[in-house]
C-alpha cells in the first residue's frame, strides 16, 4: 500500500537525477579503483551503474502512470545572463522516459556482454591494461546520453549532444594505434568527430535563432511561443528547423553527413552496438520528435526531413548489398533504418518513428553483438590453428566464414532472429514498427513510400545474403572451421535481446496503440495508424521474394573459398559501385578534403612561411629593425645623444674657464668686490 501511494503521488520523480548520477558514479569508481581491483570489478561496477539507472527509468515510468503530463525537476541555477536564464533541470515526460528506458535497458545488456567480449579483445590487441578505461568511456557515453534525453532545454540537450560526440571519438579510436598504417582507427575517430562538428554548427545556429525570436531556450516556453506566434513567424522557424535538420543529419548519419558511421566500426563491437542501437545515432531522431511543434509549423522543412530520410534509406541499403565486412553491412543497415525513422518524423508520424527507434534498438543491438560473437568465435578458431598467429587474416570478412551454424548454434539462432526482425517479417518487432512507417508514408507521401518500400526490399535481401554467407555452406577458411561458441556472459545478453526482438512489437500493436496513447501525453497531434492489410501484405511479400533471391544466389549453391560474389556477375559495374560505397568518400575527398588540404598547404607554406615569415618578418620587419637599429646607434646615439652630452660638457668647461678669473685668491680683491657691491646696494635704496 505504501509503495502504491508513493507511485500514485509521483514520489519516484525525485529519483530522476540519479539516472545521470549513477553512470557518473560508476565511471568515477572505475577511475579510482578499476585498474587496481581488476577486470571483474570494473565490469561489474560499470554494468551495475547502468542497470541501476535502468531501475530509475522504470521508477519514472511508474510515476508517470499517475502523472502522465510529466514534471520538470530543477537541479540548479545554471546560466543567468541578462534576459537569458537557463536552469539545469530534468524533464520527465512520456517521450524522455521512453528514451531513458530504451537507452539504459539496452545499454545494460551491452555492458554485460562487453565484460566477456573485452576480456578477449584486450588480449587479442595486446593491451589488457585498457580494460577499465573502456568501461569508464562506456559509462560516460550513457551519462551523456541521459543528459541529452532528460534535458529541459536546448542548451542542456546540446551538452549531452556534445558529450556523446566526445565519447564516440574516444571509443571509435579506442585502439588508436591500430588500423591502416597504424593510424586507421585514430583517423576513423577523427572523421566522426569532425563530421559531427558540421551538424553541431547547425544545432548552435538553430539555438541562436530560437533564442533571438523567443528569448528562451526552455522547451515549454519555446513551444508555447510557437503556439501563440508561430504562424506569424514561419520564416524564422523554417530557418531554425533547417539548421536543426543539419544537426540531425550529422548525429543520426543521414545524407550528406553519414560517412562517419561506417568507419565507426573501428571501435570494439560493443561500441558499435551502443552507438548504432542505443545512444548517439538516435539523438537526431529524438531531437526532431522533441521539436515537433516547430516542425509542425515549418511544413516545408518537415517535408525535406522526410525526403532526406527516404533517400538515405534507399541509398544506404544499396551500399549494404555490396559489403563483405560483417559489421559494415550492419552499419549501412543502421543508416538505412535511421532513414526510415527520419522519414517518419518528417511526415508527422512521430509515434511510428519512435516505435521503430525502440524496436530497432532491440534487433540492431542483437545483430551487432551477435556479429561480435561471430568475430570472436572466428578469431578463436584462427588463434587455435597451427601457425594461425603469424598469418594475415581478416576475421570480419564474410568471405572467410561459412558453416558457422553448426559450430556456433546459439549465435546462429539469435542472429537469425535479429535478421528476420530487421527484414520485417511477422510476428517480430521489426514487422510492426516498419509497417507502421510504411502505412503512414502510404497515406501522406507516395514518393517517400516507394523509396522506403524499395529500401525494405533490399534490407531483406542483404540480410538473407549475410545469413547465408556467414552460417550456411562449408567453412571457407580454417579459422571458420575451428570457430567456437562464446561464454554465457556474452550469449545470455544475446538471448535477452532476441526476446525483445521477438516481442517488442507489442509496444504498439495494431488496434491497441499503447505507445501512441503513451506519447500522446507529450507530443500533440499524434494519431493512431490503422493496420493497412495491403501495405503489410506487400511488405511481407517483397521481403520473402528478396530472401528467396538471396537463397537462389547464395544458398542454392554456396560460395567456396576464393569464389567471386555471384551478384557481381549479374550486376557488374553496379555491384562494383555498391562495393565501393558509390565512391562517396572519394567524392568528398576530391571536392572537400583535397581542396582543404591544398588551401591549408598554401596558407601554411606560401602565406605563413614564405610571405609572412620569409618576406614580411625577415625582409620587411627584419630589415626595418636592422636599419632602424643602425641609425639609432650610429646617427641618433653617437651624433645626437653623445653630441648633447659632449656639448653640455663643453659649455660647462667654457663657463668654468670664464668664471675662474674671478677666483684670484687675494683677500684685497674680495674686499674690494664686497665694498663695490655694498655701495651699489645702498645706491639703489637711496636713489631708487
List keywords for this structure.
688 residues, mainly alpha, 27 helices, 3% strand, elongated, disordered N terminus
Contiguous low-pLDDT stretches (5 residues minimum) are 1-9
Order of strands, main sheet, comes to 1-2
Helix content class: over 70%
Outline: elongated
Total DSSP E strands = 2
Distance between the termini: 123 Å
C-alpha-based Rg, rounded: 37 Å
- Strand fraction equals under 5%
Number of DSSP helices?
A: 27
Arithmetic mean of pLDDT: 91
Largest sheet: 2 strands, antiparallel
Order of helices and strands, N to C? Answer: HHHEEHHHHHHHHHHHHHHHHHHHHHHHH
Task: Report the structural category.
Answer: mainly alpha
Question: How would you describe what is shown here?
Answer:
There is one protein chain. Helices cover about 75% and strands about 5% of the residues. It is mainly alpha-helical and about 700 residues long. Among the domains are: about 220 residues, no CATH class; about 90 residues. A two-stranded antiparallel ribbon has the order 1-2. A hairpin with a 2-residue loop joins strand 1 and strand 2. Helix 14 runs antiparallel to helix 15, helix 15 runs antiparallel to helix 16 and helix 16 crosses helix 18. The longest helix is centred in the C-terminal third of the chain and has 76 residues. The N and C termini lie far apart (about 125 Å).
Amino acid at each position: 500500500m505504501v509503495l502504491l501511494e508513493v507511485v500514485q503521488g509521483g514520489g519516484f520523480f525525485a529519483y530522476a537525477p540519479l539516472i545521470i548520477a549513477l553512470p557518473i558514479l560508476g565511471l568515477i569508481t572505475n577511475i579510482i579503483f578499476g585498474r587496481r581491483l581488476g577486470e571483474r570489478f570494473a565490469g561489474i561496477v560499470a554494468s551495475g551503474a547502468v542497470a541501476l539507472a535502468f531501475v530509475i527509468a522504470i521508477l519514472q515510468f511508474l510515476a508517470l502512470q499517475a502523472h502522465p503530463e510529466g514534471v520538470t525537476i530543477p537541479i540548479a541555477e545554471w546560466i543567468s545572463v541578462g534576459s537569458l536564464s537557463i536552469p539545469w533541470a530534468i524533464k520527465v515526460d512520456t517521450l524522455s522516459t521512453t528514451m531513458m528506458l530504451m537507452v539504459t535497458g539496452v545499454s545494460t545488456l551491452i555492458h554485460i556482454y562487453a565484460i566477456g567480449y573485452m576480456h578477449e579483445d584486450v588480449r587479442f590487441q595486446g593491451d589488457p591494461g585498457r580494460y577499465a578505461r573502456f568501461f569508464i568511456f562506456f559509462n560516460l557515453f550513457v551519462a551523456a546520453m541521459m543528459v541529452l534525453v532528460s534535458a529541459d532545454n536546448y542548451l542542456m540537450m546540446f551538452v549531452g549532444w556534445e558529450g556523446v560526440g566526445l565519447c564516440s571519438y574516444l571509443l571509435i579510436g579506442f585502439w588508436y594505434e591500430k588500423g591502416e598504417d597504424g593510424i586507421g582507427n585514430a583517423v576513423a575517430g577523427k572523421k566522426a568527430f569532425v563530421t559531427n562538428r558540421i551538424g553541431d554548427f547547425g544545432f548552435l545556429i538553430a539555438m541562436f535563432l530560437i533564442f533571438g525570436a523567443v528569448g528562451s531556450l526552455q522547451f515549454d516556453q519555446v513551444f508555447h511561443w510557437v503556439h501563440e506566434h508561430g504562424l506569424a513567424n514561419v520564416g524564422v522557424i523554417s530557418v531554425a528547423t533547417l539548421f536543426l535538420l543539419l544537426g540531425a543529419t550529422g548525429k543520426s548519419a543521414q545524407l550528406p553527413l553519414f560517412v562517419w558511421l561506417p568507419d565507426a566500426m573501428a571501435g570494439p563491437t560493443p561500441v558499435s552496438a551502443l552507438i548504432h542501437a542505443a545512444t548517439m545515432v538516435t539523438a537526431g531522431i529524438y531531437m526532431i520528435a522533441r521539436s515537433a511543434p516547430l516542425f509542425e509549423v515549418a511544413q516545408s522543412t518537415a517535408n525535406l526531413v522526410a525526403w532526406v530520410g527516404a533517400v538515405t534509406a534507399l541509398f544506404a541499403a544499396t551500399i549494404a548489398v555490396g559489403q563483405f565486412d560483417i559489421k559494415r553491412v550492419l552499419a549501412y543497415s543502421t543508416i538505412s533504418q535511421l532513414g526510415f525513422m527520419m522519414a517518419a518524423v518528417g511526415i508527422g508520424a512521430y509515434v511510428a518513428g519512435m516505435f521503430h527507434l525502440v524496436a530497432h534498438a532491440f534487433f540492431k543491438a542483437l545483430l551487432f553483438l551477435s556479429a561480435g560473437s561471430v568475430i570472436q568465435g572466428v578469431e578463436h578458431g584462427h588463434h587455435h590453428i597451427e601457425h594461425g598467429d603469424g598469418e594475415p587474416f581478416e576475421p570480419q570478412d564474410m568471405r572467410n566464414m561459412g558453416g558457422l551454424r553448426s559450430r556456433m548454434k546459439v549465435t546462429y539462432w539469435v542472429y537469425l532472429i535479429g535478421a528476420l526482425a530487421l527484414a520485417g517479417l511477422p510476428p517480430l518487432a521489426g514487422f510492426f514498427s516498419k509497417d507502421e512507417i510504411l502505412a503512414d508514408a502510404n497515406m501522406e507521401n507516395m514518393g517517400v513510400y516507394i523509396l522506403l518500400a524499395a529500401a525494405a526490399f533490399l534490407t531483406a535481401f542483404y540480410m538473407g545474403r549475410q545469413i547465408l554467407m556467414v552460417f550456411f555452406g562449408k567453412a571457407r577458411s580454417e579459422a571458420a572451421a575451428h570457430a567456437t561458441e562464446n561464454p554465457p556472459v556474452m550469449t545470455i545478453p544475446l538471448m535477452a535481446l532476441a526476446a525483445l526482438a521477438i516481442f517488442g512489437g507489442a509496444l504498439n500493436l495494431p488496434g491497441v496503440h499503447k505507445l501512441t496513447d503513451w506519447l500522446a501525453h507529450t507530443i500533440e497531434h499524434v494519431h493512431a495508424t490503422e493496420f493497412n492489410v495491403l501495405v503489410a501484405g506487400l511488405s511481407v511479400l517483397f521481403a520473402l521474394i528478396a530472401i528467396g533471391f538471396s537463397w537462389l544466389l547464395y544458398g542454392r549453391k554456396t560460395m567456396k573459398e576464393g569464389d567471386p560474389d555471384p551478384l557481381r556477375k549479374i550486376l557488374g559495374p553496379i555491384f562494383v559501385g555498391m562495393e565501393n560505397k558509390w565512391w562517396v568518400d572519394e567524392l568528398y575527398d576530391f571536392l572537400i578534403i583535397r581542396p582543404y588540404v591544398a588551401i591549408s598547404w598554401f596558407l601554411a607554406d606560401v602565406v605563413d612561411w614564405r610571405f609572412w615569415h620569409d618576406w614580411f618578418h625577415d625582409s620587411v620587419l627584419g630589415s626595418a629593425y636592422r636599419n632602424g637599429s643602425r641609425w639609432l646607434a650610429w646617427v641618433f646615439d653617437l651624433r645626437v645623444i653623445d653630441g648633447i652630452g659632449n656639448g653640455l660638457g663643453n659649455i660647462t668647461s667654457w663657463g668654468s674657464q670664464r668664471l675662474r678669473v674671478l677666483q684670484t685668491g687675494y683677500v684685497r680683491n674680495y674686499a674690494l668686490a664686497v665694498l663695490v657691491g655694498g655701495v651699489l646696494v645702498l645706491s639703489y635704496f637711496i636713489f631708487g
